[in-house]
Design a protein that fits this description.
Elements: H1 3-25, H2 29-40, H3 45-48, H4 61-98, H5 116-130, E1 134-135, E2 141-143, H6 144-147, E3 166-167, E4 176-178, H7 184-192, E5 197-206, E6 218-228, H8 233-248, E7 253-261, E8 264-273, E9 279-288, H9 290-295, E10 304-311, H10 313-320, H11 333-336
Parallel strand pairs: 1-5
Antiparallel strand pairs: 2-4, 3-4, 5-6, 6-10, 7-8, 8-9, 9-10
Helix pairs in contact: 1-4, 2-4
Bound molecules: phenylalanine.
Phenylalanine (PHE) binds next to strand 9 and strand 10.
């Protein structure tokens, strides 16, 4: 091999190495194809070496020619392979970016709901509103006077013992308490507006009680108060019966049983009879005692009225088949979302 051939071969070798390095370094299809003219085109340094073949001795030309062709073929093969590799990578990237999982079900946003007691309370309100009543509210922390005194329970009256009162450490001893029933709202309504009155007052009440399946120290009642011209016990019985069929349904009926409350005279308990004949004790009621009317500023010669009150929690238990009152308070979503 002459020295010219050797020089040509050495140059071809280093240009090939340069070209292969450039191919390997091309980061994407665009960069690689842009480099093609320089790597393999007519004007590329490697192709340019051909022009020097003519200057070689005739017997050297085939050897040198084959060496150049081999170098170009190596570069071209590597170029094609790299091009395919970069194209495949780009396809993969595009597919990944455009990927749509058609089996994916988006989670619906969680939607809250009203507590089953609130639902029950609202249904009761709706029923009474349809009967012409309006809704009133009173405080859960009450004065002893509104909860007991104004309702004909003088201090030391034995009827106070029926209520396991929770007193609040505020003011003189035993002057402030958590209301034991919704009846103090009767007092507040009569003091704040003149008759005629057709009002229901739902809300929380408190009694000292150990929690079990059917007792909770916090519970709910709904109070009813009607004051109008010539209201009698008959109106009370009619109102209870109208409510019973409106709320429970056509197959239900009600009855009053004599009872005692200091703030009504006469007083009664009322029960609801289910279509299967069984009775459910619902609450207390009666004709508003004249001295309660007077203490609240209502002329008992001119007006008369009735009141009733019953527990909501056991009503909800019955209606929804709830076995344990405590479940209403533990806030387990799996329990609450059934209603
Ligand atoms: N407040 C009484 C109770 O909780 C129920 C009642 C209300 C009785 C209204 C008569 C009139 O026991």
């Amino acid at each position: 091999m002459t020295s010219e051939v050797a020089a040509l071969a050495a140059e071809a070798h280093s240009l090939t190495a340069e070209a292969l390095a450039a191919i390997a370094a091309a980061a994407d299809v665009g960069a690689l194809t842009a480099a093609r003219p320089y790597l393999l085109g007519r004007g590329s340094p490697l192709t340019g070496l051909r022009r020097r073949l003519g200057a070689l001795a005739p017997e050297d030309r085939p050897v040198a020619g084959r060496a150049l062709s081999g170098a170009l073929a190596t570069v071209e093969t590597r170029y094609d392979a790299r091009l395919e590799e970069l194209r495949a990578a780009e396809r993969r990237r595009r597919l990944e970016a455009e990927r749509l999982d058609l089996t994916e079900l988006p989670e619906p946003p969680p939607v809250g709901r009203l507590h089953v007691i609130t639902q029950t309370l609202q249904r009761l309100e709706d029923t009474f509103c349809a009967m012409g009543y309006t809704v009133a509210e009173g405080p859960e922390i009450e004065t002893e006077w509104h909860n007991f005194g104004a309702l004909n329970f003088p201090p030391g009256h034995p009827a106070r013992d029926m209520y396991d009162t929770l007193y609040v450490d505020h003011g003189p001893p035993a002057s402030t308490l958590l209301r034991t029933h919704t009846s103090p709202v009767q007092v507040r309504v009569m003091q704040s507006r003149p008759p005629p009155l057709y009002v229901v007052a739902p809300g929380r009440c408190y009694r000292q009680d150990t929690a079990d399946a059917t007792h909770m120290p916090v519970f709910h009642q709904i109070e009813g108060l009607v004051i109008d011209d010539g209201i009698t016990l008959g109106d009370l019985a009619g109102a209870i019966e109208t409510f019973t069929t409106a709320y429970f349904g056509a197959g239900f009926t009600s009855r009053l049983r004599p009872s005692y409350f200091p703030f009504t005279e006469p007083s009664a308990e009322f029960d609801v009879q289910r279509p299967d004949g069984t009775w459910l004790e619902l609450g207390g009621c009666g004709v508003v005692h004249p001295s309660v009317l007077e203490v609240c500023g209502v002329d008992s010669e001119r007006w008369s009225g009735f009141a009733f009150g019953f527990g909501i929690d056991r009503l909800a238990m019955l209606r929804y088949g709830i076995g344990d009152l405590r479940d209403l308070w533990t806030n387990d979503v799996r329990f609450l979302e059934q209603f």
